[in-house]
Design brief:
Structural class: alpha/beta
Oligomer: single chain
Number of domains: 1
Pfam families: adh_short
CATH class: Alpha Beta
Largest sheet: 7 strands, parallel
Strand content: 15-25%
GO molecular function, one term: oxidoreductase activity
Bound molecules: NADPH dihydro-nicotinamide-adenine-dinucleotide phosphate
Number of strands: 7
Shape: globular
Helix content: 25-40%
Protein name: SDR family oxidoreductase
Order of helices and strands: EHEHEHEHHEHEHE
CATH topology: Rossmann fold
Keywords: NADP, Oxidoreductase
Family: Belongs to the short-chain dehydrogenases/reductases (SDR) family.
Number of helices: 7
CATH architecture: 3-Layer(aba) Sandwich
Length: 232
């Protein structure tokens, strides 16, 4: 399978790329900056050769996304999975009275409009059997567990879950699995050192879902990385 993964420079995105390559898949690894060529992602390139294709992909840059999709399309690329992983957490713990609306907008640009832009341009490249669209969400986006904090992050993930539901409805007659996935509280730059889950463990679980080794236990479309239902 050929997977497109956004935000593959570090954290969960990097671990997903590494695990997918290890399992024999091909990966188109989207990174904001190609400086990453001198980073650990390029070590994967040394190990796996042409099965890894590192591409410039800033999810806020629609023109860049459109031209990448067009180039890949012309090359005849077909995608078995799109993993919308890139995300940012801003204004953490900022009270509503002090919220900077530019930060709110920036968060939506990445966490919500990013996956929308990616799907807008890459959906036509998807194969129609055994395929998967995975939007990396967060438990912070559960409306039923809403807490008064992380406003832009939580609201953007909640809206992302709605987008997932809409895609699922759009694609219901095709063999494309569409899920929002809470990856767990992970030890990454975003999750911090105290997190109980490694990004590698989460990546393995999400790959099991993509490969349909694990069937999601949900009537809806929001699960954790083990496939267990998350509250909407
Ligand atoms: P990190 O902060 O460790 O990594 C974020 C990744 O997103 C980096 O690769 C970063 O690239 C990339 N990114 C940020 N902005 C953009 C952009 N505009 N275009 C393209 N890529 C971008 O995050 P995690 O790995 O921890 O998180 C991955 C996903 O999991 C996110 O969607 C997050 O919301 C979600 N999540 C994480 C949790 C956790 O505990 N860590 C808990 C719940 C959900 P660069 O290196 O260029 O900055």
């Amino acid at each position: 399978m050929n997977l497109l993964i956004t935000g593959a420079s570090r954290g969960l995105g990097y671990e997903m790329a590494a695990a997918a390559l290890e399992r024999g898949h091909s990966v188109i690894a989207g990174t904001r900056s190609l400086d990453v060529k001198s980073s650990k992602l390029s070590l994967l390139e040394d190990k796996y050769g042409p099965r890894l294709h590192i591409v410039p992909l800033d999810v806020t840059d629609e023109q860049g996304i459109a031209s990448l999709a067009s180039i890949l399309n012309k090359e005849g690329t077909k995608l078995g999975a799109i993993v919308n992983n890139a995300g940012i957490l801003t204004a953490r713990s900022t009270p509503i009275e002090e919220l900077d609306m530019q930060q709110v907008a920036k968060t939506f640009e990445v966490n919500l409009y990013g996956p929308m832009r990616v799907l807008k341009h890459f959906l036509p490249l998807m194969t129609e059997t055994d395929a998967a669209i995975i939007n990396i969400s967060s438990e912070a986006g559960s409306i039923s567990n809403a807490y008064p904090g992380d406003y832009p992050y939580a609201i953007s993930k909640s809206a992302l879950n709605m987008f997932t539901a809409q895609l699922r409805s759009l694609l219901k007659d095709q063999d494309i699995q569409v899920l929002s996935v809470h990856p767990g509280w992970m030890k990454t730059d975003m999750g911090g050192e105290d997190a109980p889950t490694s990004a590698g463990e989460s990546a393995a679980g999400i790959l099991d879902l993509i490969e349909r080794k694990v069937v999601p236990k949900t009537k809806f479309n929001f699960v954790d990385y083990s496939g267990n239902e998350m509250p909407i």
